[in-house]
Amino acid sequence: MGTMPTPAIAALLGLTLAACGLPLPWSFLTALPLAAVLAYAAAAPTRRGVTARLFWAGFGYFALHLWWLGAFLHQLLGAAPLVIVLFALEAAFLAGMAAVAVKLTRTPTGRIWALAGGWVILEWLRFLGPLAFPWPTLGYTLLPTPAIQIADLGGVLLGSVLVTFTAASLAHAWTGRPQIGRQQQGRRPLAPAVLAAVAWAAALGYGATRTPGEGPEQPMRVLRVTFDAFGRASGGLTAQEQFSVQTAASLNRPPGSVIVWSEGAISSPGTRPAPGQTIPAFPGPGISGVGGSEQLTPPGPDPIRQPATYRQFNTVASLDAGGTIQSVSAKARLVPFGEEFPFRPVLGPVYRVIEASLGFTLASMIPNSNPTPLTLNGVLYGAYICYDSVFPWVARALANQGAQVLVNPSNDGWYQGWGVQQHFNMGRVRAIETRRWIVRSVNQGVAGTVNDLGQPVQTTQGGQDLQALDVRPKLLTGTTPYMRLGDWPALILALLMVMYGVRQDRRWNSRLN
């Protein structure tokens, strides 16, 4: 391994880190390869070397963790190599974080801790901005263990703190002995590792003592449909055909049941849904995704050169037994370059080329900055759409407004391989953070229910035929520490790791003096 080029070693360590990620059952071992990544990056002889090593480790990490995106881009555009740009961009963010960390610290030990704390802060930043993409958050790797239950205290990022703190402790124990000349002397510093072991024992003990909440049950019928996502988008599968299939599967359900349909299950071309509108023949009461487009401007005198412009919308609505819409909520987090098109002043020429090939204007949807629960028959449903499920603040905002159960209409027909299971597993943590059940209806993914401990109760994900599950989620109330405090506990702990790294530098300087 010593004869391998530095980028190859770093990339191999990143691949090893991804091989301990979701959805693999041994993902709880992530701290071990992460310790190797931190130690190898921190040991670089120059500041530039630290950033380069973390870039290549990040590139290997994202390339394996998100390999399924290449298959998606190939099917969508026939351009799988484009995914390399995403891998490089995400790796560049890690390198940028490393550049800041090495300005704060100069010793390998100090850098280890600064990189560990910076990693968590970078994960938090991935929840923000037009390029938000929080998919590879380390805290999710705790899902196979009871330790994931600490998410109700500080969210998934508190799990990331546990992982990075453990990794930094191991790397510190390996590299942090006092050095005289070229020889390391003295005992290995084991105090951080002991503290990490105590933190794991506390997290596991806390998780083992959590019990499911009690509340009234709400009968629901959840659909898992198997429509071709690309056929739906291109119009090859008509909206009426989809509606008829889903209606047939929704009939003859248990008394009092509320049906749940997936993202975009109802098409509403030209009209954004609003309370009071009626969807004829809808077998309500129920909750369904409603998608479509609305015209922004009419065509000009020359429709070829001045075509009409449209904006897509992606909403979820509650409808009563007569199909009348009771309440509506729009998608809160839009998919970059899919539902919103950022940096148009800079990327305008690229967008124009794509628009010319597609024959229509790429207009960004309007995100819902204030999601509110849907109301139906006296129950508050915290409904959020597909990509929203990987942003903890959406479910947190809905639960803080009294949502008694979370409902997640999704469409995983775009994904292949790991992407489907990763999306479902990440969404499970929203149940833990808010202590609410989740009901999920999906196109070609995992449908069913997850209880307030994040445990799947009734799910289905296989087969090519439409499936309907009759489920009975519990309606719960109450407030968790995470609902009150958000990500602040995790961010404070991450900053403390950075400060500990700076302190290690000062101790080193005091030894030299």
TrEMBL record:
Return the CDD domains for the record: ALP_N-acyl_transferase (cd07571)
Name the EC number(s): 2.3.1.269
User: Which enzyme class?
Assistant: transferase
Stated membrane topology is:
Multi-pass membrane protein
Q: Which family does it belong to?
A: Belongs to the CN hydrolase family. Apolipoprotein N-acyltransferase subfamily.
Matching HAMAP family, A to Z?
Answer: Lnt (MF_01148)
Q: What is this protein called?
A: Apolipoprotein N-acyltransferase
**Organism of origin:** Deinococcus caeni
Q: Which gene encodes it?
A: lnt_1
